[in-house]
């Protein structure tokens, strides 16, 4: 009889703690999840910060937080489950009365993109986990990962230099590595161009004089089609990612050199977009940041045939440094590029592949291709 009574008391205690702990688990429980920075670049390591606070006398014996984010954000020092494009990470806490815990996760940004963590799932229960309760908690954490900046001169070379038929005197935009001499410092010259040995010798501030110092605006035209005959979805995603990195590098250089820049692409950032992206022209940091955000959010699809995009954009490209980034080259693309040159523009075509159709080389525009590297090696950057 005593044993039965003891068992009944034990069962009642277990039931009572289950009702209390499950019923009040999330009462006055605060949870926050945020990235240490709102923006980063591919390859950067940042921090995800979790903060949980139990604002009541009743402790929380265990709390599990299920975080759902992108597979392209790699959590260091933890096991995670990857399913398609998503990553599932579990974080566990034990909270005393009125206790606040902050936990920091190191994340490596593996790929560009706009990553949202809208909600996490909180799970708690009684001491013996006979019963548990769950609740979705909004966190609305967003991270924008910009494309990687690459070394263009190491990847691409002019076709004419490979063939040895003519000399190309300058690179895509004003090249700080091609020095034609020195001149006296003028207000507005960046400190990166200071020539200190010449300054010490002459007793005056001297700067490097680059081979090309035009202040023309830069127009970057990106083709999101990886093949000539390709509808909507981009087939060769690694090729498209390399093109996005090239565009990002050009934007970064334009910002450092103070060149006005605009962006044209047949890609889109919204899944239901119908029109290509054509931006305005500016040189300030906010404008360049907006261009980087567009690159981060570009989807692997195109909304307009690239040849038609060039034809529509051609009347608005005047006295410009135009850079065409494309995975393939056709006679029509070269013809339109040559037409831009004949109308007073300087045009460069950056071909993302090592192979192009014979006879499709431009006559007036400069053509750059991968510098003797196997395509698979360049694709490692994408």
Write the CATH fold name of the largest domain. Rossmann fold
Uncertain spans, ≥5 residues at pLDDT below 50?
A: 161-170, 174-180, 374-382
Rg for CA atoms: 29 Å
Based on CA inertia axes, which overall geometry fits? elongated
Summarize the structure.
With 382 residues, this protein is α/β, with parallel strands linked by helices. It is 25% helix and 34% strand.
Structural descriptors:
single chain, 382 residues, alpha/beta, Rossmann fold, 3 domains
Topology:
Blueprint: H1 2-23, E1 29-35, E2 39-41, E3 45-54, E4 60-70, E5 73-75, E6 81-83, E7 86-95, E8 100-109, E9 113-125, E10 132-146, H2 152-155, E11 156-158, H3 159-163, E12 179-184, H4 196-202, E13 206-210, E14 217-222, H5 237-257, E15 261-265, E16 277-278, H6 285-297, H7 306-313, E17 320-326, H8 331-342, E18 346-351, E19 366-370, H9 375-379
Parallel strand pairs: 2-10, 14-15, 14-17, 17-18, 18-19
Antiparallel strand pairs: 1-3, 3-8, 4-7, 4-9, 5-8, 6-7, 9-10, 11-19, 12-13, 15-16
Helix pairs in contact: 5-6, 7-8
């Amino acid at each position: 009889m005593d044993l039965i009574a003891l068992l009944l008391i034990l069962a009642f205690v277990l039931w009572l703690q289950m009702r209390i702990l499950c019923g009040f688990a999330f009462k006055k429980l605060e949870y926050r999840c945020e990235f240490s920075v709102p923006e980063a670049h591919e390859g950067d390591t940042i921090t995800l910060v979790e903060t949980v606070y139990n604002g009541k006398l009743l402790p929380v014996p265990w709390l599990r937080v299920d975080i759902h984010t992108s597979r392209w954000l790699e959590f260091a020092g933890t096991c995670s489950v990857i399913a398609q494009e998503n990553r599932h990470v579990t974080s566990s806490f034990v909270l005393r009365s009125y206790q606040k815990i902050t936990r920091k996760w190191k994340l490596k940004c593996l790929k560009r993109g706009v990553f949202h963590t809208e909600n996490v799932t909180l799970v708690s229960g009684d001491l013996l986990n006979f019963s548990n309760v769950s609740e979705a908690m909004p966190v609305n954490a967003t991270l924008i990962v910009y494309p990687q900046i690459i070394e263009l001169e190491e990847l691409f070379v002019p076709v004419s230099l490979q063939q040895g038929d003519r000399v190309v005197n300058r690179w895509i935009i004003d090249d700080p590595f091609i020095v034609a001499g020195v001149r006296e410092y003028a207000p507005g010259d960046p400190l990166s161009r200071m020539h200190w040995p010449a300054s010490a010798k002459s007793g005056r501030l001297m700067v490097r004089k680059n081979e090309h110092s035009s202040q023309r605006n830069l127009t970057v035209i990106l083709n999101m089609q990886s093949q000539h005959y390709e509808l909507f979805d981009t087939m060769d995603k690694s090729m498209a990612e390399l093109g996005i990195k090239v565009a990002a590098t050009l934007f970064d250089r334009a910002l450092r050199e103070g060149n006005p820049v605009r962006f044209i692409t047949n890609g889109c950032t919204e899944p239901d977009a119908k029109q290509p992206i054509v931006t305005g022209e500016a040189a300030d940091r906010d404008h360049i940041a907006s261009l980087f955000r567009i690159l981060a959010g570009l989807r692997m699809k195109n909304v307009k045939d690239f040849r038609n995009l060039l034809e529509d954009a051609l009347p608005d490209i005047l006295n410009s440094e135009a850079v065409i980034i494309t995975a393939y080259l056709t006679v029509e693309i070269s013809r339109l590029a040559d037409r831009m040159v004949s109308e007073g523009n300087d045009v460069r075509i950056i071909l993302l592949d090592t192979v192009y159709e014979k006879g499709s080389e431009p006559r007036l525009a400069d053509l750059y291709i991968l510098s003797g590297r196997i395509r698979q090696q360049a694709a490692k950057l994408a």
